Amino acid sequence: MPDQSPPEAASQPSPTAATASGEAGADPGPAGVSRRRLLGTAGAAGLVLGAAGGAAGYAAAPAGATPLSSVGSDRAMFHGKHQPGITEPLQARGHLVAFDLAAGTGRPGAAALMRRWSATAERLMAGEPTGHDDTDVARDAGPSSLTITFGFGHGFFDRTGLRKQRPTALDPLPDFSGDRLDPARSNGDLWVQIGADDALVAFHALRALQKDAGGAARLRWQMNGFNRAPGATAHPMTARNLMGQVDGTRNPKPSDTDFDRRVFVPAQGDPAWMAGGSYAVVRRIRMLLDDWEKLSRPAQENVIGRRKADGAPLSGGTETTAMDLEKTGPGGDLVVPINAHARITRPDQNGGAAMLRRPFSYHDGFDTDGTPDAGLLFVCWQADPLRGFVPVQRKLDRGDALSPFLRHEASGLFAVPGGAAPGEYVGQRLLEG
Q1: Is the bond leading into 271 cis (omega within 30 degrees of zero)?
Q2: In the prediction, which pLDDT does 13 show?
Q3: What distance, in Å, lies between the first and last C-alpha atoms of the chain?
Q4: CA 387/CA 380 separation, integer angstroms
Q5: Which residues lie in coiled coils (predicted)?
Q6: Which of 212, 247, 260, 384 is labelled catalytic?
Q7: What is the DSSP string of 257-274?
Q8: Strand 93-101 and strand 217-226: pairing?
Q9: What is the rounded distance in angstroms from the CA atom of residue 152 to the CA atom of residue 277?
Q10: How far from 70 is each of 21, 40, 198, CA to CA, in Å?
């Protein structure tokens, strides 16, 4: 659980101006306000820019909390250089879903599925109904920052006859000593990430895409997550995870000069169809909260290397103050312990390895003995997982103080192609290239 995730990810969506498109002929809602009028109120109030404009929307932060009345009007863009759901701020609700292609689907069937999914995603992200057998679950809501992101797993290329187009970066992840992986909840041919600031909007998208799959693909696994809702804090703040720790101070930012190099495949990358794309590592990390909560606050802070109250490093300063790894206390001991999580995961302690974390917390009930089944749906983005996730996780394996309080229960690696241009569907350059 590396100490990197967007400072804005836990804060409120950025109100960047954009134009919303409403549903033609939409019925008025209970208060007599049509969907067209609802979305039209975004105007200067703003919609989150996605895809090509995502960096600007992601980097900016509002001066105060987002009024709840404006949450539904925020919109991310479907078309652009990159797929949505990578650089946007964290959303309040998320679904991660994997599918396996049905026997006999092949390349033509996969192309038809991606065409259907892309068309549905574009409509839903604009706050419009699906256009076919819509369930009306989100009828009264705006886009609510909905993003839908698609990726391909290792097996996708075998089933579609595209093995020669499979990136070497998609080779299976190595085994890690802390893994207790459930194969039934790992990997998959196709991966979908859904995020929104309204739970009904997110579920509506999930149901629509599952119906669109039809007989072409069957559900392999699904995981549901959440984050702090927009407007829940008096001012933008970095997220807290279920351990109560500020989680996300050192994440790469789109304003960083090397952000694109670390997160996205370059235009001249290999293979060519991945230009503008990224690789997503997905891990279901169970937090052993009963054990964690037995620790005193100072003990918890030593495990992480940061103060629990405000996320500042134990070496002093504020949340964004650079950590002084050499500072010692009165007894000569390092103020930030040698095995502290924040020390081990620093890019400058890992040959510059970095990744963009964009996780969700989860809670799936309790075991029979009352132990909570809760933790982190870890999602990280990088241009090359062999230079991003893998070296950091290997180092964590060798002595992270946080490891005894975590259990890695599921894992997946997916190639996420670049964004679709207007008139294209996601993955078209691969499937029709």
Answers
A1: yes
A2: 40
A3: 37
A4: 13
A5: none
A6: 247
A7: TTHHHHHS--TT-SSGGG
A8: antiparallel
A9: 11
A10: 16, 11, 12
292/288 Cα distance (integer angstroms): 6
DSSP 285-306: EEE-HHHHTTS-HHHHHHHHTB
For the chain, what percentages of helix, strand and coil (3-state, to nearest 5) are there? 25, 20, 55
**Which of these, 138, 106, 348, lies nearest to 250 by C-alpha position?**
348
Residue 20, CB half-sphere, CA atoms under 13 Å: how many?
A: 33
Positive or negative, the Cα torsion across 367, 370, 371, 372?
positive
Strands 93-101 and 372-382: unpaired
DSSP assigned state of 174:
P
Torsion sign, CA atoms 290, 294, 296, 299: negative
What ranges make up the beta strands (E) of 176-259?
190-196, 217-226
Residue that has been written with the tokens 């256009």 in this structure: 131
Return the pLDDT at 68.
55
Q: Are 75 and 51 in contact (CB under 8 A)?
A: no
Residue 295's identity, in one-letter code, is L
Number of CB atoms found within 10 A of residue 9's CB: 22
Q: Strand, helix or coil at 216?
A: coil
**Interacting residues of 330 by C-beta distance below 8 A, sequence separation 6+:** none
User: What are the backbone dihedrals phi and psi of residue 93, each rounded to the nearest 5 degrees, phi first?
Assistant: -140, 140
Q: Please list the rounded mean pLDDT of every run of 10 residues in the chain (433 residues).
A: 49 38 39 39 35 36 56 95 96 98 96 98 96 89 97 98 97 94 98 98 98 97 96 88 92 92 92 97 98 98 96 95 94 95 84 89 97 98 95 92 97 98 97 93
pTM of the model: 0.84
**Running DSSP on this structure, what letter comes out for residue 40?**
H
Annotated active-site residue 247? The verdict is yes
